[in-house]
Write a structure and sequence with these properties.
Number of helices: 6
Radius of gyration: 15 Å
Strand content: 15-25%
Structural class: alpha+beta
Order of helices and strands: HEEHHHEHEEH
Distance between the termini: 35 Å
Shape: globular
Strand order of the largest sheet: 2-1-3-4-5
Length: 169
């Protein structure tokens, strides 16, 4: 009898969290784990007590034919990573040195490369997390050490970052 890895275990939980998403385009779920304990979850959706895309019956970015990975400022949703960070703050729980597990699927329920966008990468760095473990379209996962992002951005311009949602990696 074999057991799944801890990474796959937590990614499977993040996949379930994603099912709460209120986005027509993609479903993302994020969980933050510290010392092998889930301390926060988040999924992409409209801010609390506001109308989401399902309630409105449309996605503004779809309506305007905006490509994935662009023009987030007009999106109604808060990203899963952002919501997980916010939810940990609301609960008064430190996420320092924790790991984030991120899972995503497209509008047909097909697995995608669940990479953080540029905005979320900046937030993950400032939040003090150690790693981000992302599901991939080939049903595996990719592990990013956040300190390596920092070192890469110190060596090059942060705008040179190529491994983010909306860009083919």
């Amino acid at each position: 009898m074999s057991r799944i890895s801890k990474e796959q275990y937590y990614l499977d939980i993040a996949k379930q969290v994603a099912q709460r998403s209120t986005c027509f385009r993609v479903k993302f779920g994020a969980i933050i784990v510290c010392d092998d304990q889930i301390i926060a979850t988040g999924y992409n959706g409209a801010p609390r007590k506001t109308k989401d895309c399902f309630e409105r019956g449309e996605c503004l970015r779809n309506k305007l034919d905006i490509p994935h990975g662009q023009r987030y400022e007009i999106c109604r949703s808060v990203h899963a990573e952002q919501n997980a960070i916010i939810n940990s703050a609301r609960a008064g729980v430190s996420l320092l040195r924790g790991d984030m597990f991120l899972c995503g699927e497209d509008e047909q329920g097909k697995a995608i490369d669940a990479l953080p966008c540029f905005i979320c990468k900046k937030m993950l760095i400032n939040a003090g997390l150690n790693r981000v473990i992302c599901s991939t379209k080939n049903k595996k996962y990719k592990i990013f050490k956040i300190q390596e992002w920092v070192e890469d951005w110190q060596a090059k311009d942060i705008l040179d970052d190529q491994c983010q949602y909306g860009k083919e990696s």
